[in-house]
Design brief:
There is one protein chain. Helices cover 47% and strands 24% of the residues. It is of the alpha+beta class. It has a domain at 5-115: Jelly Rolls, CATH 2.60.120. Strands 1-8-3-6 form a four-stranded antiparallel beta sheet. A hairpin with a 2-residue loop joins strand 4 (55-62) and strand 5.
Length: 188
């Protein structure tokens, strides 16, 4: 693997050699072009993606408008949680913002890994916990902070990639109109 998925997972919990061998046999690699989808609404999310290079957004459409609910770059793990784990059609899209290289395995592969390797259950639990905490953090931002506070928190959290994210996605992620975000950016 170019991206060291092993190093990333090993940073969560030490990987036995048998796990590395199995992962090496199940992980696939894909290059996703800018604006190409990894998942569309109404599809079942069958893959969990480890991002080696690039940037993706997770969004849904409500009343004809796109609402960004996730932004993930290098080292991120991307999945439509509800669709993937409950095996239901997704209400979300996952789309590359720029050319992106991902390594991935399927839901079935994950279930086999959980069954065969107790350590992989630990990795899964920690990744799901991190995903949930980030979701809660974003919900807290949206409910409890002013527009300027949300933007300042966003700048701090995404400082390393903010210049790569389209303004429309930043505004959508923060639950505000592009015009509102533009005014805030001029003031700051």
């Amino acid at each position: 693997m170019s991206m060291d998925v092993f190093a990333f997972l090993n940073s969560i919990t030490p990987l036995a050699e048998e796990i590395k061998i199995r992962l090496n046999s199940i992980l696939r690699t894909r290059t996703v072009k800018k604006k190409e989808y990894l998942l569309k609404e109404e599809e079942i999310c069958n893959n969990i993606y480890f991002i080696e290079k690039g940037l993706v957004r997770v969004f849904y459409i409500k009343d004809g408008l796109e609402w960004c609910s996730g932004l993930l770059a290098e080292g991120g793990v991307c999945v439509s949680v509800h669709s993937f784990f409950d095996r239901v059609k997704s209400y979300e899209y996952i789309q590359a913002i720029e050319e992106t290289i991902v390594h991935y395995h399927t839901f079935e592969d994950l279930e086999e890994m959980y069954r065969d390797f107790i350590e992989y259950n630990i990795i899964g639990r920690k990744l799901i916990t991190e995903y949930y905490v980030r979701s809660e953090e974003r919900n807290f931002w949206l409910r409890k902070h002013t527009a300027i506070e949300k933007y300042q928190l966003f700048n701090k959290k995404f400082s390393d990639i903010i210049g790569r994210i389209p303004v429309k996605d930043i505004a959508s992620y923060l639950g505000m109109e592009i015009e509102t975000l533009s005014r805030l950016r001029r003031r700051i």
